[in-house]
User: Which sequence fits this backbone?
C-alpha cells in the first residue's frame, strides 16, 4: 500500500544519505592526509633548501603591508638590484600547495599583457626575524586584525610586478572610473580571460578588487592606464567557464551601477533583473561613449547566456569596446538625468557644467589629479 511504499522510499533515501556522508568523510580524511603529507614534504625541503634569500632581493627598509588573508600576507617593497617596486606574497609552509598551484597557473598564463606577471618563487627562512617583527608592528598599528599565536619561520614566496594605481574597486569607491575606463577594463579583462580559456584555464575569482591598474608616468595624471587581471590563486585547468562568465558579467554590472561586488549573489534566473538595472543606470548616457554604453545590456545577456551566447574572445573583439582611452568620457556636456538612481559611474552635468558621478550618495567628484595622487601606493 501507499504507506509501505513511502516507508521503503524513506529508508532508501536515508541509506543514500548515510552512504554519501560516509563517502564525504572519507574524502575529507584523504584530503587531510594529502595536505599533511605535502606539509611534511615542504618542511623537509625547507629544512635543507630555505635561505634568507628574500632579504637579498627586497629592501626591508621600505617594505609595507598591502593586505592579508587566510593563506598569508602581501607586501610591497623594492628590488635591491634595480630599485623597482615589486609585490611579494608570503605563504606559510602549511599553504605551500596553494602557492604551488598559483605559480603553476601563472606560468601557464604567462605572456598575456593583461595578466599580472609572476617573476620568482623561492623558499625563505626568517633567520633574523625581520618578517616576524614586521608582522608584530603591523598588528600593533592595527593593520592586522588578529595576532598570530606563533609566526612561521619559513615561507613560500611569490614575487609579482607592482601595479601603482590600485584596483578598479579603489576607483569605484572614489567615483573616479569614467566610461572610457570602464570600457577599457571590460576589453582588457576579456582579453585576459580569452587568453586563459584558449589554454583551458579558468580564473574563478574575477571582481573589481582583482583588476589592477598602473601608469608608467606617475607625474602625469592623464597618462594612459594599463589594466591587468590579478590573483590566480583560484585558477584551474578546466573547460567549465561558467564561473568566469558570471563573475565577468557582475564585474561589468558593478562598474555600471556602482554596487559593491558581492552585495548580491548572482543567480542565472535573476540575470534579467540585473540587466534591467543596468538599462536603468545607462538610460541617460550621451556623448562619444553613448553607443558602447547602451550596448551593455546586450553584451551582458550574451555573457550570461540569456541571449545570443558569447565567448570571451567575442567579448574581447566586440566592436564598440575597441580603441578607448582610460579617461574618455569626461564630458562637459552630458544629458542631465532627472531620475534618482542607486548608482552609476556615468557622468552627469551639474549647474555650471561640472561633472558628477552618481553613486550611493551623489557627491561632487574630486579632480582626477588630486585623486590619483592620493591613490599612489
Assistant:
Amino acid at each position: 500500500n501507499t504507506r509501505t511504499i513511502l516507508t521503503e522510499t524513506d529508508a532508501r533515501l536515508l541509506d543514500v544519505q548515510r552512504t554519501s556522508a560516509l563517502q564525504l568523510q572519507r574524502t575529507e580524511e584523504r584530503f587531510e592526509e594529502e595536505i599533511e603529507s605535502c606539509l611534511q614534504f615542504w618542511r623537509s625541503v625547507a629544512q635543507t633548501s630555505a635561505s634568507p634569500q628574500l632579504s637579498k632581493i627586497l629592501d626591508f627598509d621600505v617594505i609595507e603591508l598591502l593586505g592579508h588573508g587566510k593563506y598569508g600576507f602581501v607586501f610591497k617593497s623594492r628590488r635591491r638590484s634595480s630599485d623597482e617596486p615589486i609585490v611579494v606574497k608570503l605563504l606559510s609552509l602549511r599553504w605551500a600547495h596553494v602557492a604551488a598551484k598559483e605559480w603553476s597557473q601563472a606560468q601557464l598564463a604567462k605572456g598575456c599583457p593583461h595578466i599580472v606577471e609572476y617573476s620568482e618563487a623561492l623558499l625563505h627562512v626568517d633567520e633574523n626575524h625581520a618578517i616576524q617583527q614586521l608582522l608584530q608592528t603591523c598588528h600593533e598599528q592595527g593593520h592586522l586584525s588578529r595576532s598570530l599565536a606563533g609566526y612561521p619561520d619559513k615561507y613560500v614566496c611569490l614575487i609579482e610586478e607592482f601595479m601603482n594605481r590600485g584596483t578598479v574597486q579603489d576607483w569605484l569607491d572614489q567615483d573616479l572610473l569614467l566610461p572610457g575606463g570602464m570600457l577599457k577594463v571590460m576589453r582588457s579583462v576579456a582579453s585576459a580571460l580569452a587568453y586563459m580559456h584558449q589554454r583551458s584555464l579558468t580564473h574563478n575569482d574575477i571582481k573589481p578588487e582583482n583588476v589592477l591598474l598602473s601608469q608608467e608616468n606617475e607625474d602625469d595624471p592623464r597618462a594612459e592606464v594599463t589594466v591587468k587581471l590579478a590573483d590566480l590563486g583560484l585558477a584551474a585547468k578546466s573547460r567549465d567557464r561558467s564561473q568566469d562568465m558570471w563573475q565577468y558579467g557582475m564585474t561589468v554590472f558593478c562598474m555600471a551601477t556602482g554596487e559593491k561586488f558581492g552585495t548580491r549573489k548572482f543567480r542565472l534566473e535573476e540575470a534579467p533583473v540585473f540587466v534591467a538595472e543596468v538599462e536603468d543606470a545607462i538610460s541617460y548616457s550621451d556623448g562619444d561613449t553613448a553607443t558602447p554604453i547602451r550596448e551593455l545590456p546586450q553584451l551582458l545577456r550574451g555573457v550570461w547566456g540569456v541571449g545570443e551566447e558569447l565567448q570571451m574572445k567575442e567579448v574581447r573583439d566586440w566592436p564598440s569596446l575597441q580603441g578607448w582611452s582610460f579617461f574618455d568620457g569626461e564630458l562637459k556636456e552630458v544629458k542631465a538625468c532627472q531620475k534618482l538612481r542607486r548608482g552609476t559611474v556615468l557622468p552627469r552635468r551639474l549647474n555650471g557644467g561640472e561633472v558628477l558621478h552618481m553613486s550611493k550618495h551623489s557627491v561632487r567628484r574630486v579632480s582626477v589629479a588630486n585623486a590619483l595622487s592620493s591613490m599612489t601606493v
Observations:
- Residues 331-377 have pLDDT under 50 and may be disordered.
